[in-house]
Amino acid sequence: MNQPVQPLVEVDQLGHCYPGKQALDQVSFTIQSGQFHALLGPNGAGKSTLFALISRLFQVQQGDIRVNGHSLRHAPAALLGSIGMVFQQSTLDLDLSVEQNLDYHGCLHGLSAGIRKQRIQEELARVELLDARGKKVRALNGGHRRRVEIARALLHHPSLLLLDEATVGLDPHTRASLNRHVRSLCEQQQVTVLWATHLIEEILPADPVTLLHQGKVLANESAHNLCLQTGKASLVEAFELLTADRRRGDGASV
Ligand SMILES: Nc1ncnc2c1ncn2[C@@H]1O[C@H](COP(=O)(O)OP(=O)(O)OP(=O)(O)O)[C@@H](O)[C@H]1O
């Protein structure tokens, strides 16, 4: 008999309150290894709060997150070593070169000079920016800066790559190309991805989706199943139905 596969990521009953605002309320979902998992939610749903918790910008108040079995509460350093982050706001130093930005990150992760040199070369080649290694980040366009951030996030070979609204501010063509690139990392390099977005067009029918709205999980399903279960032809309509129910207070969930 087949054993159930242990998920790579377990978000378990996560809660977070700002003064006077419950931003996350008993949020639970899992991600299987090698998947492109979408965290779909409109502005204010709580996506960035979840990212701030997993990256330890905030202290965990309720619940836990486990990556590769490392608990945010009990083994935070091991968990941080297992993840790579691309935040909504760029965190590159514009006046350093691409290579200097990556090298600094490698130092923070304790990589030796030799390993840093090798990995910088590998990751920049993967995002097709090897020729830009000596350029200041300020000289790159928005799409290329995002690619540098992805290369940087993968430098220490994390199990999980998290991207928070990574395509914000990019033109439609660059958005689509970045989305395709990250999917190819899943398919070809077995990288596991949590892709937070409010843009439904970035999600494909087979993608597992966690639908987050006003701090609560409304659904954990593939986009295709969400349409089937709501009887809607498109994810846009399914999303409208589920979030409208919530706005009316029906509290429907799938
Ligand atoms: N520092 C804060 N103090 C109080 N409330 C906050 C704070 N930061 C966020 N919030 C509120 O918490 C809720 C969740 O915000 P969060 O930024 O996590 O959502 P989001 O899904 O990432 O949205 P966006 O894409 O607009 O950033 C929102 O209602 C927001 O106004």
TrEMBL record:
InterPro entries per record: AAA+_ATPase, ABC_transporter-like_ATP-bd, ABC_transporter_ATP-binding, ABC_transprt_ATP-bd_su_PQQ, P-loop_NTPase
Molecular function (Gene Ontology), one example: ATP binding
Name of protein: ATP-binding cassette domain-containing protein
Matching PANTHER family: ABC TRANSPORTER ATP-BINDING PROTEIN, ABC TRANSPORTER ATP-BINDING PROTEIN NATA
Keyword Transport: yes
Taxonomic superkingdom: Bacteria
Family annotation (Pfam families): ABC_tran
Keywords for the protein's UniProt record, in alphabetical order: ATP-binding, Nodulation, Nucleotide-binding, Transport
Family recorded in the similarity comment: Belongs to the ABC transporter superfamily.
Keyword Nucleotide-binding: yes
All copies of domain ABC transporter, residue ranges: 9-239
